[in-house]
Design goal:
By secondary structure, the chain is an alpha/beta fold. It folds into two domains: 57 residues, Winged helix-like DNA-binding domain superfamily/Winged helix DNA-binding domain (Arc Repressor Mutant, subunit A, Orthogonal Bundle); 177 residues, Rossmann fold (3-Layer(aba) Sandwich), CATH 3.40.50. It has nine helices and 17 strands. The strands form five sheets. The chain has a seven-stranded parallel sheet, sandwiched between helices. A three-stranded antiparallel sheet has the order 1-3-2. α7 links the parallel β6 and β7. α1 packs across α3, α5 crosses α6 and α6 packs parallel to α7. It is elongated and about 60 Å long.
């Protein structure tokens, strides 16, 4: 097994179990203890795991199992979210095809968009209404509306999303770590975000500084798969993995 394949197996085991021993990893990969220890040293230097006696753990991500309701989230980090949203809105060009999800910072982004010929698709009826108020060409996904975030999810939304290709996607997240990438609490909402990202030329994650170092239940995609727009980067190690813009 190649080193890259062993690294992927190690990180997969960690994502499921959060803590693994060298012995466990030898069984999973078929490699020797010396080889596994070298792999763990390499991954620790990259910031993708934390070495402990006899094994490894996830790299310092604090786990959050529940998601605050939409009204609570609207009241958090309002100035920071507004700066992020204003900058993100300035990235939209006249010929773009844009996906915007139901994140609170993404919703604020809609308020800063200028009139243009861009086409917008959202899985948030609220976001779609804000876009229409600015006379922007807007489509909204059909499907099941999730209580709390009011995001449209489910099989119907996924089917509709597959008909589109985007130049840019703007997404909200609940957690960002090197090891687990971008995460959100609800698996169905994560599936919509993941599919939208896979159909976009460029993916932007809008996240205030509080999201770094957090892990929630459902993974979206690795940290390398999106650019991050934030108010402040609390740990410079993230720059080793993706493009980050502080605003």
């Amino acid at each position: 097994m190649l080193a890259e394949q062993r690294a992927e197996k190690i990180l997969t085991e960690l994502s499921v179990r959060r803590t693994v021993s060298v012995t466990d990893l030898c069984l999973v990969t078929g490699a020797s203890e010396a080889t596994i220890r070298r792999d763990l040293n390499a991954l620790a230097r990259q910031g993708r795991l934390s070495k402990v006696h006899g094994g490894a753990t996830l790299p310092g991500g604090e786990f959050y199992g529940e998601e605050p309701d939409m009204e609570t989230k609207r009241q958090l980090y309002t100035e920071e979210k507004d700066r992020i949203a204003r900058y993100a809105a300035g990235l939209v060009q006249d010929d773009d095809i844009v996906f915007m999800d139901a994140g609170t910072t993404v919703l604020r982004m809609a308020e800063h968009l200028q009139p243009s010929g861009a086409l917008f698709l959202s899985n948030s009826p609220e976001c779609a209404c804000r876009l229409l108020e600015r006379n922007l060409r807007t489509y909204v996904l059909g499907g099941m509306m999730k209580p709390g975030t009011m995001a449209v999810t489910g099989a119907e939304a996924m089917e509709g999303l597959r008909r589109y290709h985007f130049t840019k996607a703007f997404l909200g997240v609940n957690g960002i770590t090197v090891g687990q990438g971008f995460t959100t609490p609800d698996p169905e909402e994560a599936a919509v975000k993941t599919l939208a990202a896979s159909r976009a030329r460029t993916v932007y994650v809008l996240a205030d500084a509080s999201k770094f170092g957090r892990v929630t239940a459902a993974s979206m995609f690795p940290i390398e798969a999106a650019r991050v727009i934030t108010d402040r980067l609390p740990n410079q190690q993230y720059r080793n993995y993706t493009e980050i813009r502080e605003v």
